[in-house]
From TrEMBL:
<keyword id="KW-0719">Serine esterase</keyword>
<feature type="signal peptide">
    <location>
        <begin position="1"/>
        <end position="39"/>
    </location>
</feature>
<keyword id="KW-0964">Secreted</keyword>
<comment type="similarity">
    <text>Belongs to the AB hydrolase superfamily.</text>
</comment>
<keyword id="KW-0378">Hydrolase</keyword>
<dbReference type="Pfam" id="PF12740">
    <property type="entry name" value="PETase"/>
</dbReference>
<dbReference type="InterPro" id="IPR041127">
    <property type="entry name" value="PET_hydrolase/cutinase-like"/>
</dbReference>
<protein>
    <recommendedName>
        <fullName>Poly(ethylene terephthalate) hydrolase</fullName>
        <ecNumber>3.1.1.101</ecNumber>
        <ecNumber>3.1.1.74</ecNumber>
    </recommendedName>
</protein>
<keyword id="KW-0732">Signal</keyword>
<dbReference type="InterPro" id="IPR029058">
    <property type="entry name" value="AB_hydrolase_fold"/>
</dbReference>
<keyword id="KW-1015">Disulfide bond</keyword>
<feature type="domain" description="PET hydrolase/cutinase-like">
    <location>
        <begin position="38"/>
        <end position="297"/>
    </location>
</feature>
<dbReference type="GO" id="GO:0042597">
    <property type="term" value="C:periplasmic space"/>
</dbReference>
<dbReference type="InterPro" id="IPR050261">
    <property type="entry name" value="FrsA_esterase"/>
</dbReference>
<dbReference type="GO" id="GO:0005576">
    <property type="term" value="C:extracellular region"/>
</dbReference>
<keyword id="KW-0574">Periplasm</keyword>
<dbReference type="GO" id="GO:0050525">
    <property type="term" value="F:cutinase activity"/>
</dbReference>
């Protein structure tokens, strides 16, 4: 055995301790990188959200389209918008209905906007332009079933069948309430300027955001959107967004406030992505918003 001098032994001991400390630091750093303080949820898609991201005309995902024939069963065809990214896993899906006498083209700006935030979207044509809310609700559900079961593989393979939602304008909004009431397994519903002769929805348990217009003379909020909101039990999670000065037709042109809140709601409840709670609670404010009521999402 070779004996070290006291000085050499001290230097060797110091060097070994320094190397050990460096190794501990490197290991801790690697663990910190691999295990962030707050792990991402299993359905989080895309970068951390910001006001700028949600207010832009497109989200972070590129989008492709697929036309649906009018010969499909249960609804009148339409247009599918879906993310082209195949590295993020599957996405939630949303079916959207236009209103009375309207075609999907009246809401077409919403398709790529929502899809570009990580959703498969189908904007439907209704069987007739005059279909009432109950029929539109059934058609929304038929469109979701088509996406999950019969859509082209490029679309179907991107969909998580357990994360589905509905939305619609006017009678399509009334149909959205019908669909949410009929299928409680839905993850979210967004009626927009909704119209329905049925004013109470105590059976809805689907998280529902109702968006109304202050100056709506066709489906006045006092006799439609507000009544619908108040009738839905708070156990369902719900929000009511009223747009300042907006008419019944506000969804038919690009509306940043509506799109921002709608995407945040879908991300929070379809994707269970809690990063989006900041845009829902505390409630959003600004000159475009006349009123906002909410239950506040429960994490």
């Amino acid at each position: 055995m070779q004996l070290l001098s006291p000085r050499t032994g001290a230097r060797t001991f110091t060097r070994l301790m320094t190397q050990a400390a460096l190794a501990v630091t490197l290991i801790a750093g690697a663990l910190a990188i691999g295990s962030p303080a707050q792990a991402a949820g299993p359905y989080d898609r895309g970068p951390d959200p910001t006001d700028a991201v949600l207010e832009a005309s497109r989200g972070p995902f590129s989008v492709a389209t697929q036309r649906v024939s009018s010969l499909v069963l249960g609804f009148g065809g339409g247009e599918i918008y879906y993310p082209t990214d195949t590295s993020q896993g599957t996405f939630g899906a949303v079916a959207i209905s236009p209103g009375y006498t309207a075609r999907w083209s009246s809401l077409a700006w919403l398709g790529p906007r929502i899809a570009s935030h990580g959703f498969v979207v189908i904007g439907i044509e209704t069987n007739t332009l005059y279909d009432q809310p109950a029929s539109r609700g059934r058609q929304l559900l038929a469109a979701l079933d088509y996406l999950v079961e019969d859509s082209p593989l490029a679309v179907r393979s991107r969909i998580d069948p357990g994360r589905l939602a509905v939305a619609g304008h006017s009678m399509g909004g009334g149909g959205t309430l019908e669909a949410a009431d009929d299928r409680p397994s839905l993850q979210a519903a967004v009626p927009i300027a909704p119209w329905n002769t049925d004013k109470t929805w105590p059976g809805i348990q689907v998280p529902t955001m109702i968006i109304g217009g202050e100056s709506d003379s066709i489906a006045p909020v006092a006799t439609h959107a507000q009544l619908f909101y108040e009738s839905i039990p708070s156990s369902a999670e719900k929000a009511y967004l009223e747009l300042n000065g907006a008419s019944h037709f506000f969804p038919q042109t690009t509306n940043t406030t509506m799109a921002k809140s709608m995407v945040a709601w879908l991300k929070r409840f379809v994707d269970d992505d809690t990063r989006y709670e900041q845009f829902l609670c505390p409630p959003p404010s600004g000159t475009a918003i006349e009123e906002y009521r909410h239950t506040c999402p429960s994490s």
